[in-house]
Specification:
flagellum; Flagellar basal-body rod protein FlgG; Flagellar_basal_body_rod_CS; seven-stranded antiparallel β-sheet; alpha+beta; bacterial flagellum; Flg_bb/hook_C_dom; 20 strands
């Protein structure tokens, strides 16, 4: 009986965390470059139930041997193992702002272990001087002329240096070259993640690695892409599907809640009524 409490409660916790993830996806449906999260729900290992008893081996029952008979397996509940981003490209939307950039995927080599393509990202430097990565190309120029994100993080070039410009009168070609006053001043840094599922998702659309920096996409064989100035990549959140998944999570939560209430009533009956006899 008590095990049923734990199984139902684990189902409620799983659906609560799944609903929180889906709510975050929906709230970022209009965030440029946002990658929707997908939940991986797993079950705990099942338990093999056996009945233990004794069987007499003589007519008078003086000698008996222990016996075991299998009753079947018992589920011990579920849990949400992780939330993994979906790196599918979002829609490309025109903004006509010179500081807005969008990465348009071309050929991306497949990862041999996962069988899925890698991902391209802008290289960013955060306030602590550490490298971060993003698909959000909603950039701007700060007071000192540096190309930054909306949160003030510096956009880096292919040499991991900050990009400084004199004004917004510059152009960026499809190869990432920044041209100002008819002179090439820098090249936008683009990193290639061969296994993007190894990236760690942070807030504000940023990703980080646990080890070394990602390799430059310009120097990686088999990678092709182009940059579009005056465009932004939208999020890849499917709002209709996300709403459907949220309703499913709520209904599943309610079903586990009703099971928990049924167990509670059974325990109440066992303690307050059967226990009096």
């Amino acid at each position: 009986m008590f095990r049923g409490f734990y199984t139902a409660a684990s189902g409620m916790l799983t659906q609560q965390r799944r609903a929180e993830m889906l709510t975050n996806n929906l709230s970022n449906a209009n965030t440029p470059g946002f990658k929707t999260d997908q939940a991986s729900v797993r079950s705990f290992p099942e338990m093999l139930m056996q009945r233990m008893g004794q069987q007499a081996t003589t007519p008078n029952g003086n000698i008996s041997l222990p016996i075991h008979s299998q009753l079947g397996t018992l589920s011990t509940g579920v849990y949400m193992q992780e939330a993994t981003p979906l790196y599918k490209q979002g829609d490309i939307q025109e903004t006509e702002l010179s500081t807005d950039l969008a990465i348009v995927n071309g050929n991306l080599p497949l990862n041999q272990e996962s069988g899925k393509p890698g991902s391209l990202l802008f290289i960013i430097e955060n306030s602590e001087g550490e490298a971060r990565y993003t698909r959000n190309g909603n950039f701007t120029l700060d007071g000192a002329g540096y190309l930054t994100t909306a949160n003030g993080n510096y956009v880096l070039d292919d040499n991991s240096s900050r990009i400084r410009l004199n004004s917004e009168n510059f152009s960026i070609n499809e190869d990432g070259m920044i041209v100002e006053n008819n002179q090439t001043v820098a090249r936008v840094g683009i990193a290639f993640a061969r296994d993007p599922f190894g990236l760690i998702k942070e807030g504000d659309g940023l990703f980080r690695t646990e080890g070394a920096m990602l390799a430059s996409a310009y120097n990686t064989a088999g990678v092709s892409f182009n940059l579009k100035q005056g465009y932004l990549e939208g999020s890849n959140v499917d709002q209709a599907q996300t709403m459907t998944d949220m309703l499913t999570a709520y209904r599943t939560f309610e079903a586990n809640q009703k099971i928990l209430q049924a167990y509670d009533k059974s325990m109440d009956k066992a303690v307050n009524e059967i226990g009096r006899l």
